[in-house]
């Protein structure tokens, strides 16, 4: 496994942050249980699968982020992967790639 693949695998592992679909939006996300707290990484994979099945939904179920803050509740915290800025809570918040040195 290359260093790049190893890094990607580490970033995809569940890190403690969970989300729950708000019941008002359950009709947009078939197959996602609105009553269950689920690791964010799992929900991201499910949303991507929904988009793959129906790309026309992209404007309705995604926005600036794959999990829309108005459609999901969030809880928990995640430690940042090694090399990423500690003060930011999302992978996409990092302004620079990880520090490899």
Order of helices and strands: HEEHHE
| Mean pLDDT metric | 76
The level of helicity is 25-40%
Give a quick account of the main beta sheet: strands, pairing sense, barrel closure: 3 strands, antiparallel
The DSSP helix count reads: 3
The counted number of beta strands is 3
Q: Strand arrangement, largest sheet?
A: 2-1-3
Uncertain stretches: 1-12
Determine the structural class based on helices, strands and strand pairing. Answer: alpha+beta
User: Distance between termini?
Assistant: 20 Å
Molecular structure report:
This protein is 28% helix and 10% strand. Residues 1-12 have low confidence and may be disordered. The chain starts with a helix and ends in a 26-residue tail after the last strand. It has a domain at 15-76. The chain has a three-stranded antiparallel β-sheet with strand order 2-1-3. It contains three helices and three strands; from the N terminus they run H-E-E-H-H-E. It has 101 residues and is of the alpha+beta class.
Q: Mind sketching the topology for me?
A:
Blueprint: H1 3-12, E1 18-21, E2 38-39, H2 40-53, H3 58-61, E3 72-75
Antiparallel strand pairs: 1-2, 1-3
Key phrases:
101 residues; alpha+beta; globular
Would you kindly provide a brief summary of this structure?
This protein has 101 residues and is α+β, with helices and mostly antiparallel strands. It has helices spanning 3-12, 40-53, 58-61; strands at 18-21, 38-39, 72-75.
